[in-house]
Write a structure and sequence with these properties.
The protein is an alpha/beta fold and about 700 residues long. Helix content is about 50%, strand content about 10%. Strands 6-5-4-7-8 form a 5-stranded mixed beta sheet, with helices on both faces. Strands 11-12-13-15-14 form a 5-stranded mixed barrel.
Amino acid sequence: MQNLTALLAKKNTLNQTQIKNILTLLDKGDTIPFIARYRKELTGGADDEQLRLFHDVYLSAKRLLERKEEILHILKEREHLDVKLQTQIQEAESMTALEDIYRPYKEKKNTRAATAIKQELEPLANILQSAKLTKEEFTRKAKQFVRGEVKDVAHAIKGAQDIVAERYAEQPKEREVLRQMVQRHGNIEVKATKHFTENGSFKNYKAHTEKAAYIPSHRYLAIKRGEKEKELSVKLTIDTERYLETLKRYKLRDYMGSSKSLLLEAYKDGFKRLLYPSIEREVFALLKEKADAAAIGVFGKNMTQLFMSPPVTGKVLLGVDPAYRTGCKLAVIDENGKYLDHAVIYPVPPRDEYDKSRDVVAKLVKKYNIQGAAIGNGTASNETQAFFAKLNSDGVSIPYTVVSEAGASVYSASAIAAREYPDLDVTIRGAISIAGRVRDPMATLVKIDPKSLGIGQYQHDVDQKLLERKLHEGVESLVNAVGVDVNSASASLLSYVAGVGMKVAENIVKHRENEGAFDSKKAVLKVKGLGAKAYEQAAGFLRIREGKSIFDNTGIHPESYAVAKALEKYNDLSDTKRIAEELNVGEPTLRDIIKELAKPGFDPREELPSIPFKQGLTDINALREGSIVSGVVRNIADFGAFVDIGLKNDGMIHISEISQQRIKHPLEVLSVNQYLPRVEVISIDLEKNKVGLSLKEV
């Protein structure tokens, strides 16, 4: 624990006391959302994101310490361990440095050097590396090793060179020097292969060179995808000749014997055959790791903004899943998201049944008092929007908004959807999902694999295990930040509450279906499988809207109910330090309690701008360069943002057109589902139905 604490202290900004406290809490089985929200006094107020970063560093540090112990054990067993080597291992601060130290001592079976060592050529290699003999003297010395499998002098010399080459390639210092050189000065060189498709997805990389140190994550992932699809070849290059000249001066500057030419050959061979390819693989892996982390970071931020879109409350909504041949599927949900009715209409080609479709929608609007429609942005979306725009002009008042339907088909065919709507066709389930994305985005989208949400960039090219873990953590943080109504939430939503999980979440749903609504947080303890520890972790994040106590509709943890009750005797709560001392509670916790009591049932999403509805439609043929339009941001990537302005394809704002000030990433200015009331059209491609947009002048 002490070694781990010291190592962690070097790798983050938390002090050793905070680190010890966090490690103790984690060992007790406390979850990160619980620690972040209800143990602030012990962590110095570290938030959820800081704690997750700490947890990543903690796991990395733990792996490093475990690997050190493993290597020390192996070296001791093989009698290679001395005080100097042990100190080097114990002081290594990264896995790369540790593996560099250990590399020369690894057992090798099939290398050229291993073969030469078996042929007893190691003493000759030592003589060569000393470079004290002339070439003729060394050659005469080599004759003494011609025996057994060593057929002649050339064989003996080559074997000695192979041993020296491997020794050189495994020196930690040489590896680190070259690693730094490649990372700082290496170029990524990309070329087209014989399978390259002209004007295809990788046309910009047909002959591309870029500094490895500066390549953006999205470009690197694109290049690696091209390599995977065999359209591109990729390599890392440095000024090899300059490196070898430096090597010659550095390695051979004090050697007088002419056998140094043989030694230089060995070093060059070690560099070209062993050292450089090994470092190239390392740097490629590091670039991929960094690109994955950046792409997953962008994906996570997009997901956060999407999930935190404010719910449209108090409205009956119509979900519309557009299609051409099979018709537009309609689903009605009430103010609480409960399914009411469905229908299918054919307002778009090939049938173009405007009148029939209008009558069906008008009947549903009248019957259920529908106050808004959510239209999916997939196939036939533009034509369906045109239909609803005409409805509004014909007196059937139903304002609409367009939502991403990404993942709707995945959800509709899932086991979750089958359990929720066993008697409905999958197409109607999809329309319900589209309506739910307006009614309560988080509750709806949590049922869908985040990778299917159509946000971010290159999510299928990154480390899938890391992506899954990061996205699960992201959803968990968001769900716990908002809080969950235990009497209405689905099992999917409840499963993300700290300490719960899917099995217990399903038991919660079964319990309320069989026993009725929970009237207090304490009543949740009756749920099968939810023990005291799980309850401790979950209770603060659960909400009982109409329970016995007002505290149950807040983020106040039941362990603090007595403190919350005691606040009734205070007329002035401004002196939190004094009150905290009197009530024997931490000041950060007290401030949180006061904040919760000020707004029982508060949903942080309510403070965000509401989702815009509209009645008209944008026509690309009516657009001109300089036209001003409005739209909603649908996705954000490193290079720009995609904005729905009511056309078949989203318009594109390049990062250079987002702000008059230089920005490093679009997320500094924009967010997913953000409404942009004024966007300038700067380019129109009617053939490809593409529109370029800008925010710089508006």
